[in-house]
Amino acid sequence: MNNYDVIVIGAGPAGMNAAIYANRAGLNVLMLEKGAPGGQMVNTSEVENYIGFGKLSGADLALKMFNHTQELGVEYRYGEVTEIIDGEIKIVKTTDNEYEGKAIIIATGTVPRSLGAENEEKFAGNGISWCAICDGPLYKDKDVLVIGGGNSAIEEAIYLSGLAKSVKVLARRELRANATYIDKTKKYDNIEIVKNTSVESFIGDGKISGARIINNITKEKSEIKFDGAFIFVGFNPKTNSFKNLGILDDSGYIKTNEFMETRVKGIYAAGDVIVKNLRQIATATNDGAIAAMQAGKYIEDLN
Predict the structure, then answer these.
(1) 8 A C-beta contact, residue 208 and residue 127
(2) How far apart are CA 266 and CA 301, in angstroms?
(3) Tens-digit pLDDT profile for residues 199-213
(4) Could you count the other beta carbons within 10 Å of the beta carbon of residue 94?
(5) pLDDT digits (tens, 9 = 90+) for 34-71
(6) Per DSSP, what are the bridge partners of residue 167?
(7) How many alpha carbons fall within 13 Å on the CB side of residue 214?
(8) CA gap 184, 212 in Å, rounded
(9) End-to-end CA distance of the chain, in Å?
(10) Which residues are catalytic?
């Protein structure tokens, strides 16, 4: 059995900062991650609001954070967590291993939400993407559709406008993005915004060629053509492995207090995975620091 003081599940900004703070407190820390370090940051084309860094790509910021954890000697392992068993010593089970920890910090973040439209699964990864920075270069000088009306959708539409011939943004209602992002779109002649419209189904013979859409006010239906679609309609928390702990709300987010404590002693949560009003890189790192310090106090009391 692998024994640790603190096991951090997730290597996004919350998890990495938690690992750094726990490590600097002299604790034996393991950071587990089933994907690339950085979480949703990796899929962000530009970060302009993380203090001290000006403008840089999300992938670059993620790498800087990860390198920081490694410079300090934080142990990092790949692992998909399947279950946490509570006790004075907690057991974290992955698909191929088990780890023991005195305290656990859950920082698993979120995953992009699907539309639920007809043929969405059929074309997923084959014409439909949830990551503009990953797949945008595939559509150089082609026509693309961006689905969503929030900051992420508009930000990624702006990024794609530098690659694609045309970018059509489809928003189910009015745009929810902040004014700064919306104003930026006006600088790009190849961005078109269509409001109050939803996708009913994606169409194509072998490869995607377009979609059937409906105007949510007039109920008029029509078809549009494009070479690829990018979906940005929100996120779902990655918490299926923690249902047995009784720490989730009705939407699957983890309930914590201001100290990042869950209802289970010794189990903390941080970042986008918790119930909160603002999900940003800055708030995630803040959560991680608080969780690590509280975990340290918990372990001190155990001893």
Answers:
(1) yes
(2) 11
(3) 999 999 989 999 999
(4) 18
(5) 999 999 898 887 888 899 998 899 999 999 999 999 99
(6) 144, 191
(7) 7
(8) 28
(9) 20
(10) 131, 134-135
